[in-house]
């Protein structure tokens, strides 16, 4: 508690304000770099999963199977495509050094949250299909398809693992964007000592 | 902007502080009631989905099928059970009027987020199984099981709809608990004018 008190005393002195402003700028710059990288990583993972799944097809004596034969895998491809596009776009936006405004923070928060749910959903339904393809199901008389199409199943599993990497990245991004958004809500009118960007209007 | 400025001037006068403290107490009480209700609702939905799924079995000339024959439905039942228990427990904790501390806010935030993902995952994989059971799949030679077991599929769909109700509740609860947690991070040392609970330590 003593730390918070003393840091506020320093922050309220004229010299402290200058020191704090430059420290804030530096922190903001570092945060921007971390966020941009954390948005480029899922883009790379999404694109890898996308390409792996798009090229995933197998033909043999039993017949042929392609990702497009299964609705779950089609959804996975679409989800990965849309997510890669959003990741790139949001990485560009977050790379530009600009004070964060409330509408921008809300947009990031809602979209990050939405994409976490979309990619998690896509990963979950594909997991179920791969599980059924490996194990089959006696009650519904669904046979194990992976016995006949081993390579197809392996590639689909690899794409799925990459997709869960995206889910982890987006869970972290959601945490980050909710911190950015909601920490504004109790912002003091004068200066913040936590390195959080406050809109110029709020700073007045 | 004028509103924020004037409300801060009022808040900083001795009379304003008293007025504000009582308004804060009232807001906090209302927030607690809303949160408790929002935690009891998914409990009711989880229990309904759980009971519906547990009793879901059908026998006819084609054979018999029960929820326990499908791994996805077993996971759905477990997820609903655990989620109902957590909803009840967290409703009790949030109903007790107590100043919110940082560890408590972090616990609520992390658990709410985790349960949103768990229930969303359970809902997604069960959706895929029901989709396959209705439509079948030609490439993997999986037949449509719902033609033979219509009642089973209907009940499973009903349980699924209830589960997605839980997902919506938990998405809102996640939003609420991230607001509670992260709005603390920039809390002013003296008084807050947003009705957010600050730990006594932070208030000193």
Short structural summary:
By secondary structure, chain A is mostly helical. Helix content of chain A is 73%, strand content 4%.
Question: Describe it for me?
Answer:
The structure is a homodimer of 204-residue chains. With 204 residues, chain A is mostly helical. The first copy, chain A, has one domain. Chain A contains 6 helices and 2 strands. In chain A, strand 1 and strand 2 form a beta hairpin. The longest helix of chain A is centred in the first third of the chain and has 41 residues. The interface between A and B is large, with 53 and 52 residues.
The poorly predicted ranges of chain A are 1-11, 187-204
Largest interface: A-B, 53 and 52 residues
Mean of residue pLDDT values of chain A: 81
Radius of gyration of chain A: 23 Å
Largest sheet properties of chain A: 2 strands, antiparallel
Supply the number of structural domains of chain A.
Answer: 1
* Silhouette of chain A: elongated
Strand content of chain A: under 5%
Assembly form of the protein? homodimer
**SSE ordering of chain A:** HHEEHHHH
Q: Give me the number of helical elements of chain A.
A: 6
Helix content of chain A: over 70%
**Structural class estimated from helices and strands of chain A:** mainly alpha
How many runs of DSSP E, i.e. beta strands of chain A? 2
Calculate the terminal CA-CA distance of chain A, rounded to whole Å.
28 Å
| Largest sheet, spatial ordering of strands of chain A | 1-2
Main location (chains A, B): membrane
Pfam families (chains A, B): CASP_dom
Family (chains A, B): Belongs to the Casparian strip membrane proteins (CASP) family.
GO cellular component, one term (chains A, B): plasma membrane
